[in-house]
Amino acid sequence: MSESDVPSPSSNRVKQFIDGLEPPSFENTAFTTPKPLSECTVAILTSAALHHPEQPGFDPRDTSFRHIDPTRRDFKLGHWSQDVDQVGFGVDYNVVFPIDRLQELADDGTIGAVADVHLAYAGNQFEVEGIRLDSGPEGARVLHDAGVDVVLLTPV
Amino acid sequence: MSTLAHVLEEHGLATIALGIVQGQLESTAPPRGLFCDFPLGRPLGKPADPEFQHRVLAHAFGMLKRTEPGIETFEEAISDDSQVLTCPMPPRAESDDHPAVVEARALRPAYDRTIARYGDRMGAFRLMGPDDVPAAIATFAAIADGAAWKEAGIPGIPARVVQDIRGYYEAAAVSLADHTPAAFEAARWFQHETETGRVILQAREQMKEQGAKQGLWQYLVSGAVAD
Fold first, then answer.
1. I want to staple B123 with a disulfide (CB 3.0 to 4.6 A). Which of A41, A77, B71, B224 is the partner?
2. CB < 8 Å to B170, chain A
3. Can you tell me the ipTM of this complex?
4. How far apart are CA B214 and CA A122, in angstroms?
5. Contacts of B217 in chain A (CB under 8 A)
6. Is A130 inside a domain boundary?
7. Residues B51 and B113 in one domain
8. For A103, nearest residue in chain B (alpha carbons)
9. Which range marks the domain in which residue B33 is found?
10. How many domains does chain B have?
């Protein structure tokens, strides 16, 4: 099959499906104003189901989270969706989990520090109440206790 | 993702949520959302491009200066339409086995080179290891040739087995290609240009005709590359 014969292959089709899902609603939008970025400790929270090899992977409906150690680079992508490109992460984990970029920003003083702990959840969830009411607040406490001021959230 | 942003802000943490699906980002309305029109799986846009990744981060962290919630759009979009990887296939050994099985064996050195260079980071091999790939492909080849899918010996939930097979091929493609593949470029190569990809498509049709539940055959192929 030649390239021209491949029928409109695109993740746009998948994006349209995701667009059609019923979103959770929040009556009020909390809004925290941080101190200057150069004084902030920054963490990454990703929904890519990242984990280290010795940690359990994520079941498809798993709403728990894993602690990601920023001094390590042995990340595993645990996301179950086949509609997510995995090659980009395979070649450069920063395209999902930009830990090297954060360290560069800390080194040049743009941010205050890279957090000692980062979190990974599993996206592709159709029911998010468990995250909203349980594992989400628990993760927030972990980050808060680690002195985190700012969180960058990265999906896949 | 945006749900977590709301929760974190309620606990006093400032957040910026990157979002790849614009409608979802707008409907879930995180306190600070940056729409990045990038392929699914690449929220920072371009692998092995630190300068581009820093541009995304600069925009994201710049949103911390906002005084009220809002969504902004990153200045550059990345399309993942239609690219299909072209790469030389390694020579195959003479064998009476199915061509897809022989093809998979021939790709093993390329797979091993990718793992040696980048590490075993991709999502494949949650059900089986790379040594098991040829035998798993043989089960789908049997289905494609008309065997009953329930009796073919697929070593797990069909879609998850295929996910591992596809991951094996995509990892091999990284070493066979002369560039970092664009998003889904290697997935399309697997699906439409390889013996095994074609076997999976044929097995999918067979399972459908044999009355397998839609959820079992539909997800043998990614919605991002399916017909």
1. A77
2. 86-87, 90
3. 0.91
4. 24
5. none
6. yes
7. no
8. B54
9. 2-73
10. 2
Q: Which residues of A touch B163 (CB under 8 A)?
A: 80, 82
Q: In 10 A of CB B215, how many CB atoms?
A: 10
Count: domains in chain A: 1
Tens place of pLDDT per residue across chain A (156 aa): 333 333 344 566 666 666 666 666 777 889 999 999 999 999 999 999 999 999 998 887 899 999 999 999 999 998 888 888 999 999 999 999 999 999 999 999 999 999 999 999 998 777 788 888 899 999 999 999 999 999 999 998
Q: What's the DSSP call for residue A24?
A: P
Q: Is residue A16 part of a domain?
A: no
Give how far B152 is from chain A: nearest CA, Å: 23
In terms of domains, do B104 and B69 share one? Answer: no
**Six-digit token pair at B169?**
């091929």
B190/B170 Cα distance (integer angstroms): 7
Identify the three-state secondary structure at position A122. strand
Looking at the structure, tell me whether residues B66 and B9 fall in a common domain.
Answer: yes
Q: Closest to A57 (Cβ–Cβ): which among B81, B126, B174?
A: B126
Residue type, A143: L
Verify whether the Cβ–Cβ distance B44 to A101 is below 8 Å: yes
Q: How far is A48 from chain B (nearest CA, A)?
A: 8
What is the token pair recorded at A119?
Answer: 């979190």
